[in-house]
Specification:
Length: about 100
């Protein structure tokens, strides 16, 4: 496999970021060593390891924020736990970043 970087210094679109995150998740399900998975994801996608970390961190932060907002909304509305049909995973929005 070539060690060339695809689009070095170019902006990652939301769709590209989603692909990077999906590749990272795929490898995380098969290996539990985060640093190895970041390196492998970087090699497979042609995106720097730093950009892989940024994508993963952004998704993690968005999920935590959505969970906090959901918990806050439930506690202020006076409702208990929502029925299982209403317990949805938060939707993650991928924004553009610059690849390093």
């Amino acid at each position: 496999m070539s060690s060339e970087r695809i689009g070095s210094g170019k902006t990652l679109t939301g769709q590209s970021r989603e692909i990077v995150y999906n590749v990272f998740n795929y490898f995380m399900h098969h290996h539990n060593k985060k640093m190895m998975v970041e390196s492998l994801t970087s090699e497979v996608t042609g995106v720097s390891q730093r950009s892989v970390r940024q994508v993963v961190c952004e998704v993690h932060n968005q999920v935590i924020a959505a969970i906090k907002a959901s918990t806050l909304q439930q506690s202020t509305s006076g409702e208990g736990d929502p029925p299982a049909s209403k317990a949805l995973l938060p939707q993650v929005t991928f924004r553009k970043i610059y690849s390093t």
